């Protein structure tokens, strides 16, 4: 049974897969079609209640909220995937340097990781954005590097633990280079821990983009973003509270789906957790009994 089948058997995996697929399909569909032009302003239709033809209502300028959410999904996908790729590259590089190099290099990398991890990711992103200006690429790189350091801190001890295993030593004895050993033996064995950290980083990247855009340090005003939409609608919360629900709900469901998908992937790929599926179930299971002590 492959990983996808095991993932689908888990309720958290099904929810995560379906939610992420819906968001991805929505982002792709918005490239070709939206119910209304998200940039179209219709003052006569402003603050429309959910119904037909505006299924989720309209904002203060008459723009269709559903169309804005569909276009904003593209930003969410870009930030999550981009920050995930950057975090993966930074995390693997630092973890490998901190676990597989000579002692003085390992100690220097460990100190560097401890220094970098002391700075909050959002603070770093705000500082960079204040210098280079708010843009999605600044958010992607700052969040990706920040969480790459966090991934390296968790993955490095796992790499050092696996490094002393018999199959790794056998690979070295057979002539495998350090890079080949890393790709063949080390990374697959730390993959469950890495996957959880990566999914969590992608989820927080979505939150970071929304928060930075809300504060004015993220996406520019011309870029579609759920955080920008939430910031625009928040000032009318007391008058039209329902309009704020939709972007907030989209952000919440996305973050929840990524977290649950990461947990399910860990359970589907970790051999120690998969072993539980092979245990007998149901009335035919043989109960495990411990013999009593004979006096």
TrEMBL record:
Membrane topology: Multi-pass membrane protein
Membrane spanning stretches: 12-33, 77-97, 109-128, 134-154, 193-217, 237-261
One GO location term (cellular component): plasma membrane
Keyword Cell inner membrane: no
InterPro entries registered for this protein in UniProt: BP-dependent_transpt_permease, MetI-like, MetI-like_sf
Record domain ABC transmembrane type-1: where: 73-262
Annotated stretches, region: Disordered: 272-295
Subcellular location: Cell membrane
GO process annotations (BP): transmembrane transport
Keywords for this protein: Cell membrane, Membrane, Transmembrane, Transmembrane helix, Transport
Gene3D superfamilies: MetI-like
Superkingdom: Bacteria
PANTHER family per the UniProt record, alphabetical: OLIGOPEPTIDE TRANSPORT SYSTEM PERMEASE PROTEIN APPC, PEPTIDE ABC TRANSPORTER PERMEASE PROTEIN
Family the UniProt entry places it in: Belongs to the binding-protein-dependent transport system permease family.
Protein known as: ABC transporter permease
